[in-house]
Amino acid sequence: MTTIRIFFEKCGESAYISLLDLQRVFHRVLKRSGLPVWYTMGFNPHIYLSFSCPLSLGQESLCESCEVKTEAESIDPAVWVAALQPLMPRGIVITKVAPAVEKVGEIETAAYDVTMPADAADALAFYNAAEHAEVTKKTKRGTKTLDIKAYLPRIDYEPAGEELRFTVTLPCGSGEALNLNPALLMDFLHENGGAPAWQCRVLRTHLYTKSGVDFA
After folding, report:
1. What are the tens digits of pLDDT across the range 146-205?
2. How far is the C-alpha of 207 from the C-alpha of 215, rounded, in Å?
């Protein structure tokens, strides 16, 4: 049994496909593709499918991935890409198919490119001047207060016409590890400086492992 990792981009209107619907999309695509994926055993067999650090609704990414299993001794990545891509909804682009290298639990951080309106400069200045930036994070066990400043002491941004752009790297662990959603930062900037969170674009560009390399 081999674990295959499918890497894909999720941009544009596909950013508004929820995780649950994304799972449905991939299940249907994999069934229609005819690829030799493994089904679970039991009364209701279904394709084994697992996503790595799913995005929040409305966020985009260049580095999403999911896992399936196959009993095939080897695969031809080009054949898999050719079978999957024509069936994908607009905005989802298959970039790579290969045997999984790292375990999902090795993911530690994620890098995001953020674009905001130029009038968000005051909110960013407020953040940089603040000693703390506390937010409330919802968890399965309730809520907890986090200080974003502990992970992002300062935001260095650059003007780009009528926009501001910056890159942040935030914790993105799995299981019990900390996962700091950039939406929490957007909410803080909105509540403490009036930055219009609904006009911000969040694009995940990299997932990094504990060794500091790209997740593969």
Report:
1. 999 999 999 999 998 899 999 999 999 765 558 899 999 999 999 998 888 888 999 999
2. 6
Tell me the CATH number at 25: 3.30.70.580
Element containing residue 110 per DSSP (H, E) = strand 107-117
Same domain membership, residue 137 and residue 89: no
Instruction: Give the integer Cα–Cα distance in Å for 63 and 9.
Output: 6
Predicted TM-score of the model (pTM): 0.93
Same domain, 85 and 179: no
Rounded distance, CA 216 to CA 207, Å? Answer: 9
- When divided into structural domains, the chain yields a total of 2
- Domain boundary (45, 73, 100) is at 100
Rounded to the nearest 10°, the torsion over CA 185, 136, 140, 60 is -10
Q: Indicate the pairing of strand 60-70 with strand 50-51.
A: antiparallel
Could you write out the DSSP letters of every residue in 16-85?
GS-HHHHHHHHHHHHHHHT----B--SSS--B--EESSPPPTT-EEEEEEEEEEE--S---HHHHHHHHG
- In angstroms, rounded to a whole number, what is the distance separating the alpha carbons of residues 60 and 58? 7
Cα–Cα distance between 191 and 176 in angstroms, integer? 28
| Residue-level length of the chain | 216
Maximum separation of any 2 CA atoms in the chain, in Å: 59
Domain that holds residue 147: 105-209
| 120 and 59 in a common domain | no
